[in-house]
Each structure stands twice: as structure tokens, then as C-alpha cells.
Amino acid sequence: MNATVAGIIGYVGLQILVGAWVSRRIATETDYMLAGRSFGVALASVSIFATWFGAEVVIGAASRVYTQGISGAQAEPFAYAAGIMVMGLVFAARLWRRGIQTLADFFRFRFSGRIERLAAALLIPGSVLWAAAQIRGFGQIVGSAADIELETALTLAVIAVVCYTVLGGLLADAYNDAIQSTVIVAGLSGLCWVAVAEAGGIATSLARIEPSRWVLFPPEQSLLAIMEKWAIPICGSVVAVELISRVLACRSPEVARTGATLGGACYLLIALVPVTLGLVGPHIVPDIANSEQIVPEIAERHLPPVLYVLFVGALISAILTTVDSALLAAGTLLSHNLLLRLHPTATERTKVTVARTSVATLGVIAYLLALRATHISDLVELASAFASAGIFVALVFGLFTRLGGELSAFASMASGALVWLIGSHVFELQAPYVAGLASAFLAYVVVAQFEPRSQAAA
């Protein structure tokens, strides 16, 4: 057993121990889903940062910047950071004051139980598919480091993640997020320091970057293309159940606002590390065939063994924080907004059991998807964009106005999804998501003219 494998085993084992320790504090559904609404600013911001800082940032953003320059970072990390901060500055305090436990709860109280179930059904697939993609990434890293078959690595990965998520719920996720954030920052900081030193230092590295690689919005990129690239991350982040669960877990609306805003700022700051690696990469590893290997390639070529183990730990941390959050968010929607609606008199113990069973079940489904699929990342993008346009529009109208009711919300969600689907796969529009947002907005407003104004507080 080499040092990397030993480090991985010890690191994942620590996550499971944290979950087992936290599980002793789980007595109610709120304890499990929202950590007893106990988050302070520090825990909220760290957990939000760690949840969003997945492998797609470390690997994906660096790869796109390596090939496209800074314009490749428009969506990840710039637009996603903007989405998190918009949640903090605009939505967090209002959602917290509603006293809800999930985003689907809001749609039940504001519109109807049918809209609650529709929202949950649209949101769950994206989280499960996203978890599946991350599990596959985790399995690939573990399989490579331990020299074992991918299927075996995937099995070990999902067992580890499901164990500590099922045991400790959101509080275990948050504590593990704090541990994982430390590893992420340390690992990437060490790698960036080595890479910049290899390129001749900060001043020399920046001077060697071609001016064209500093252009955020290339002249050939149309306004519609820019709107599309920014709209999906911003709107999708605002309605992401992983983010909303952490907002609702805060101890006050002020903490929710500050924690989300700081979490977005931390995410942007740390995400600049892989962006920097992508910018200086052509001068460090100009001969790389696959741009997605830019960060691992720099690590393998230039890090000493101890720092390389730390880097592998950082990659695993980035993946684990996303997997556990996605499974927990999807599992709580399934249990709280779908299954337990069939048993309204269930005890708190039963509710916790159903929630844990839901998380475990969805973990198995994510595992099967990771095992069988080869392009899950494409499915994740499809599921996210398909659901979020109409849900975002209905949330904005429902949260900030008294306009519209059940039919308006249904029209918004249905039209947003259908227009995006047809626009992207039939007509191949340049900006199908923007078209979905526009159609969802128009559908809500038009249908609302024929409905009585809601009595819900704006």
C-alpha cells in the first residue's frame, strides 16, 4: 500500500467517523435535514463554499482557461459565484423567514401541494445525476491511485459517501465540509505556488500570458451567447436545493444572508487558483494532449510526494463535498415533500428513518448511473437546465409578489422546461435557456391575469 492509498483510506475513514459522531445528535427531521437550524456565519459560509467547489472547478475551469483564456471562466467560477452571492443578498433572508424546510415547501405554502410535488420531481433528478458524475470522478481518482478496477473503486466510493451522509445528515456534511475546505485550500495553494515558481515567479508568469487570453468577453461572442452562459449558473444556483438547505440551516435571517454572501466570495477567491493554473499552464506543460489533465499533470510533474498526496486529498475533498450535499438534498426532497406527504402523522423518529432510507436509495441509484453511463456530465447539465428556468421564475414571483397562483406556477414550470427542451434539441437555438426563462415569465404573467391575487405576503 503506497502513501497515496493510505492517505485516501485514512481521509475517507475520518469522514465516516464524523458522521457516526454527529448521528448521536439527530433526534428530529429538522436535526437531520437542517442541522437543527444551528449554523453560524462561519459554518454556513465554509459549507456553501465547499459544496460548490467541486471537481468541475478544479479540473473543468482550469481546462477551459487553458484552451480559451480567461473567457473560459465565465460560467465557472464567475457566474456561479455571482449566483451564490445573489442568493445571499436577495433571497436568503426572505426564504429563511418563511420557516420552510425545503424549497418545495415554499411552493406548497405559496401555491399548492401539487406544485410542491411538481417542483420536487423536477429538482431531484438533477441532484442525483450530479452526484453520479461526482461519484464516477471519485472512483476514477481512487482507481488510479490504488491501481484497482473502476467498478471496485466506484463501489468503495459510494459506500463511504453514503455511510457518513446517511448517519449524520446536514450537520455531518457541514463538519466534513470544514475539514475538506482546509484540505482543498492547502492542496491547491501548494500546487499554485509550485506552478508559478516553475513559470518564473508571479511577475514573470503574468507577463508571459498573451493579452488575448485576458479578454473575458471575446468580440466573436454574441450578447445572447453571453446571456445564456451566465443565466444557467446564476438562476440554477439560486434554486439549487443544496444551497437553499444551507441557507435554511442558519440560526437567523441575518446569518443566512451573510453566510451565503461570504460563501460565494470565498468560492470565487479560491476558484481563482485553478483559473491561474489554466492561464500559466501553456508555459509549464505546453505539450499536454488532454486539457482536462492540466491540473493533475502539473501536480504529477512538479509536486514532491508529500504535496502530491495533499493534492489528491484536495481533489477527493472537492468531490466528496458535492456528492454528500447532492444526495442529502435529493433525499430530503424525496422523503419530506413526496413520501411523508402520504403519512402526515409520522413520528419524528419515522421521519428521520425515511429521510435516511431515501438518501441511501438515491445513493444506490447514483452509483448505478455512475457505473453504467459514460457521459453523465451531459445529463447533469440537461437536468439542471430543464428544471431551473420555470422554477426560478415561479420562485421570484411567489417570493416577492402576490401575483399568480397554482396555475401560474404550473404554466411557468411547464413552459420553461418545454421551451428549453425544444429550443436546444429541435431548433438548436443559440440561447435556449434564455428562451425558457422568457417563456416562463410570459406564461406566469399571462395566466396570473385570470387568477385571483394570492394572499401570501410578498
Describe this structure in words.
By secondary structure, this protein is mostly helical. It has a single domain (3-376), classed as Sodium/glucose cotransporter, CATH 1.20.1730. 79% of the residues lie in helices and 0% in strands. The protein is built from 18 helices and no strands. Helix 7 packs across helix 8 (150-198) and helix 17 packs antiparallel against helix 18 (432-448). The longest helix has 49 residues, at 150-198. It is globular and about 65 Å long. It starts with a helix and ends in a 10-residue tail after the last helix.
Supply the CATH class: Mainly Alpha
Question: What does the average pLDDT come to?
Answer: 84
Looking at the overall shape, the CATH architecture is Up-down Bundle
**What's the total count of β strands?**
0
Tell me the structural class.
mainly alpha
What is the number of independent domains?
1
Oligomeric state = single chain
**Percent strand:** under 5%
Q: What string, H for helix and E for strand, traces the elements in order?
A: HHHHHHHHHHHHHHHHHH
| Helix percent band | over 70%
Q: Give the biggest sheet.
A: none
What does this entry show, briefly?
The protein contains 18 helices and no strands. With 458 residues, the protein is an all-alpha fold.
Characteristics:
18 helices; single chain; mainly alpha; 458 residues; Sodium/glucose cotransporter
SSE diagram, text form:
Blueprint: H1 3-23, H2 29-34, H3 41-52, H4 55-68, H5 74-97, H6 103-110, H7 113-146, H8 150-198, H9 202-207, H10 223-238, H11 241-248, H12 253-284, H13 294-302, H14 305-339, H15 348-372, H16 376-400, H17 406-425, H18 432-448
